[in-house]
Design brief:
145 residues; 28% helix; membrane; BamE_dom; protein-macromolecule adaptor activity; BamE; BamE-like
């Protein structure tokens, strides 16, 4: 009987020490921003007619660019995520600032897209077979005879 009480006491002590390590200053979830931090003040500075150089001075280099015909676009992506101490990352908010330029490299328009504006794209999992990929080692040996 005393052995059971001793085991229970040790288990309770180990649990108490483990829980004491989890204080309020230690969080299991950390919040961080990936990509650019796009401020409202910086977005307000971008107006039609401005040059690409001025946009670069205000926002920095774009994360992605796109050119179609005479127009081009620069994209600045801000993603706010929460990451657990176990490595699980959850996207909480995404903002994409798109700045469109004309052929003379002047701002034509800007648009702000959120996570709700995005669309889920299914990734195709099928693969094209290559020679010898599906045969096992023994199949290859038997094939050579």
């Amino acid at each position: 009987m005393h052995l059971r009480i001793a085991k229970a006491s040790v288990a309770a002590a180990v649990l108490a020490v483990a829980l004491a390590g989890c204080s309020s200053s230690t969080s299991l979830i950390s919040k961080r921003t990936q990509g650019y931090e796009i401020s409202d003040a910086a977005m307000a500075q971008i107006r039609p007619g401005q040059s690409q150089q001025l946009v670069t001075l205000v926002l920095g280099s774009p994360q992605s660019t796109n050119t179609f015909g005479d127009q081009s676009a620069w994209y600045y992506v801000e993603t706010k995520v929460e990451q657990t101490s176990f490595g699980l990352t959850m996207v909480k908010e995404r903002t994409v600032l798109a700045i469109y330029f004309d052929k003379s490299k002047k701002v034509v328009d800007k648009a702000v897209y959120s996570l709700a504006d995005g669309k889920v794209v299914t990734i195709e999992s099928r693969r094209t077979q290559s020679f010898g990929e599906d045969r096992t080692f023994i199949d290859q040996i038997l094939q050579s005879f």
